[in-house]
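Human: For the file, kindly provide a plain-text protein record giving the amino acid sequence and the backbone structure tokens, at your earliest convenience.
Assistant:
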Amino acid sequence: MKAIIIDDEPLARMIVKEYLLAFPQIELVGECGDGFEGLKTIQQLEPDLVFLDIQMPKINGFEMLELIDQPPKVIFTTAFDEFAIKAFENHAVDYLLKPFSKERFEKAILKWTDHRQAAQSSSSQTQQLLESAALSPAQNRRIVVKTGGKIKIIPVDEIHFLEAADDYVKIHTGDNSFLKNKTMSHFEKILDAQAFVRTHRSYIVSIQQVTRIEPYEKENHLAILKSGARIPVSKSGYTKLKMILGI
């Protein structure tokens, strides 16, 4: 069984390596100091288990997992974070709260080996965890996407509008657009309702980008953005827009 460690603290990686010596059936095949390197290593080595820190530079552990289509099984290692720990407990995902003892580490490994066959359940738990984590104020100020083999971090205040695109959402900024494998409902939940409005089942718009609203066919309207983009506004979307704009 293959494992990798992703943690920006060398001492934390060393402790996990030391504790793993008690489990010869688990081969440590890699260790990484940040989420960029971790993502690449997971894709290359396809480990059975990842020891993953949450708070890391560049991209954090949750953001890294979001970029993987089929996340591996994960044991999170983290310093105290009330929001993250609540999310872990709600979704029965195991975590090690730093500093953790050898006994607590062994308990996590035994739990993992006992549940190794429940791959589908584990993947579902991870996805549910990421949905919960995205609601954290620390998580919803930016969006991380993969584009052309590279990772792009998009600050939320650079977003002009979001558009449904089959199984993806297209995120439009001032000079580009990016695809994210999420739903419109996901973004409607995580984005600030005072800054973004779902004007149509296929569109969410940044209030700061709206210059005017024009009538368009029956009870529908168009929101004209600073960029000149024309965004459909449904009857219910128009009601929401007017309420937030105070008109």
Observations:
- The chain is about 35% helix and 30% strand.
